[in-house]
């Protein structure tokens, strides 16, 4: 029984096909192993529950008014948790401005991603600018005049 637990190597004769790998046991038997799916890096605000949306709205309000980096990061962590996405390395998330001022896109995304369009800079004493996600920024950009 112990031999089934002690896997030794990937089978070199079979290419990887999707998330399933074939590996050999110490007895030489080949078994299938399911690997983890890659994490989603964005979410759709409109597909979330009203409770999750309320948490995200409050967290963005807190981030916008945050006076310290720690408070800002804490708020962004709440956004990530409520949206079920990992907090990106930038620790900076946004909801596409098209949600209320355009096509209705509700993407929650890394605000430092390539292709993001600034539609309005942050107001004085605020931290968050209005941003379009990379898809909307490509398909129908509304760049800021400022």
Q: What do you see in this structure?
A:
This protein has helices at 2-5, 50-65, 69-83, 98-101, 134-139, and strands spanning 7-10, 20-25, 30-34, 43-44, 93-95, 107-110, 117-120, 130-132. It is α+β, with helices and mostly antiparallel strands. Strand 2 (20-25) and strand 3 (30-34) form a beta hairpin. The chain has two domains: 2-34, no CATH class; 43-139, no CATH class. Mean pLDDT is 81; it is low at 1-24. The strands form three sheets. Strands 1-2-3 form a three-stranded antiparallel beta sheet. A three-stranded antiparallel beta sheet has the order 4-6-5, covered by helices on one side. A two-stranded antiparallel sheet has the order 7-8.
